[in-house]
Amino acid sequence: MVFYEPKDFHFNENIMDTVVKNIVKYRKEKGFTQEKLAFYTDLSNEFVRRVKLLMVKEDIH
Questions:
Q1: Cα–Cα distance between 37 and 46 in angstroms, integer?
Q2: Residues contacting 49, CB < 8 A, separation 6+
Q3: Which of 47, 52, 55, 60 is the most exposed place for a label (fewest CB within 10 A)?
Q4: In sequence order, what are the residues at sequence separation of 6 or more whose Cβ sits closer than 8 angstroms to the Cβ of residue 34?
Q5: Is the pLDDT assigned to residue 5 strictly greater than 60?
Q6: From the DSSP assignment, how many helices (H) and strands (E) are in the chain?
Q7: What is the distance between the alpha carbons of residues 25 and 28, in angstroms, rounded to a whole number?
Q8: What are the two backbone dihedrals, phi and then psi, of residue 25, each rounded to the nearest 5 degrees?
Q9: Would you kindly state where each structural domain of the chain is located, as residue ranges?
Q10: Which residues contact 60 (CB under 8 A, 6 or more apart)?
Q11: Whole-number pLDDT of residue 52
Q12: Average of pLDDT values for 24-42?
């Protein structure tokens, strides 16, 4: 039996900001609409829309 030691991860407090910025950045670089991104990532249009709304709500630019 293999035992693993617990890892002590330290994430940036603004990890969500970074994730949202990267989603928007790479979507635009590829020229994808929100609908096309949802299709290719097998996510719902609603989920992708909410990511965009989170960016606007948090004023992430």
A1: 11
A2: 34
A3: 47
A4: 27, 45, 48, 49, 52
A5: yes
A6: 3, 0
A7: 5
A8: -60, -50
A9: 15-57
A10: 17, 20, 21, 54
A11: 79
A12: 92
State how far the Cα of 54 lies from the Cα of 48, in Å rounded to an integer: 10
Tokens (6 digits) for 11: 């994430």
Mean pLDDT, all residues of the chain: 82
pLDDT surpassing 70 at residue 19: yes
pTM of the model: 0.62
Rounded to the nearest 5 degrees, what angle is found at the Cα of 47, between the Cα atoms of 52 and 40? Answer: 100
Helix axis angle for 15-30 and 45-57, nearest 10°, is 120
Q: How far apart are alpha carbons 53 and 55 in whole angstroms?
A: 5
Task: Answer whether residue 61 shows pLDDT above 60.
Answer: no
